[in-house]
Structures are given as structure tokens and as C-alpha cells.
Amino acid sequence: MTIMFYALIGVILVLVLGALCWRWTSRRRQLPCPAWLAWFLENPVVESIAGAQTLLDRIGLQTGEQGLDVGCGPGRLSIPAALRVGPTGSITALDIQPAMLARLEKAMGRAGVRNIVPRLCDISLDPELPSDSVDRAWLVTVLGEIPDWTAALKNLYRILRPGGTLSITEVLGDPHYQTRGTVLRLCTNAGFEPSQYWRTFLAFTQNFTRPM
Fold this sequence. Notes:
With 212 residues, the chain is of the alpha/beta class. It has helices at 2-26, 44-49, 52-59, 78-85, 98-111, 149-159, 180-189, and strands at residues 66-70, 90-95, 116-120, 134-140, 160-171, 193-199, 203-209. The N and C termini lie far apart (63 Å).
């Protein structure tokens, strides 16, 4: 029993140390969740903590709108978002990993969805996305994966239409987790105005508006 107890403590310490190392390194270079861990983003536990439909309700996505899924991964939100905006709307799905976008494209085929535009790019660097072109943008457990927060949020401010919504969700336990205070500071410094806020025991969503 004693050996098992110490072994369990050892495993926990290794996991915590690994998460801290990952978090520290991600502030100096991009370390997104690798594609082979996509199952970690799409499972019943994650869905119970931060369900896709719940998050889309908070984002406020409506039929016919243009959405931007930053760090889309395998499409956990992109697919239901595309169904929600319908054929008169579209979703641009950004990721820096070709393997994640390949998973998204397979999911699009299975769901019969055609109004998603997968795009391989870094939101901090890409100047090609049109200004004032998106109604709503969201980052779900993604903000902490971006080393250059200032550039990323400046780009998002430019891309969003005046009056548009930026929604940021953070889940406790994610190695890249950012506190609400950090999220508020970064986004208000970029010019966004805080709006709706939701919190559960393990996650929160903070919305912002680009002023008119």
C-alpha cells in the first residue's frame, strides 16, 4: 500500500512538473496541443465542462453570420458553428498545424459541411484576413498557446467588425490556462470592451466587444 501511494504521488508530481514546463516553454514558443492528442479535445469530459453548444450560445452566433474559430483543432466548435450559421454564413477555421486541419476536413466530410474555410496560419502574423470582416471570433483554451498576445489581439481587433464579439474560454487544468484577470487586462489593452461573463467551477467564458 505504501509503495503504491508513493508511486501515485510520483506520477502526480511528474504530471504537474510536465504541465509547468509546458506552460513556461509556451510563453517563448508556440506549443499547441499536438494533433495526436486531438482526442483530449474531443471527449465527454471536455464536453461536460465546456460543451460546444453551450459555448456557441455564449458567443451568440446567429444564422448568416461570419465566424472565426482561432485554434480550431479538429473542429469541435467549427462544425456545430457552421451548422448554426447555415448556408448564408461561414466559419473561418484557423490553426497552425496541418494535421489538425486535416482532421477538421475529414470531420467536415462526415458532417456534410461546406461552409467552413480551413486556413493554415498564425493569428499573430497573418495580415491577409480582411479587416472588419467577422461578426464573432472565439478562442477556446487557445490564448495561452500564443506567445505574442499583443499582436494576436491587435489582429483580432482589426478583423472583427465594429460591434463584433470576441469570446475567450479558459478551462482549469489546461497547461495554458489564463486567469480572468489576465484575459481582461490583455483584451482591454487591445481596445476591447468587456461584456458578458459566465463561470462554472472548472471553466469561464469572458466576452468582449469591439467598440462601434
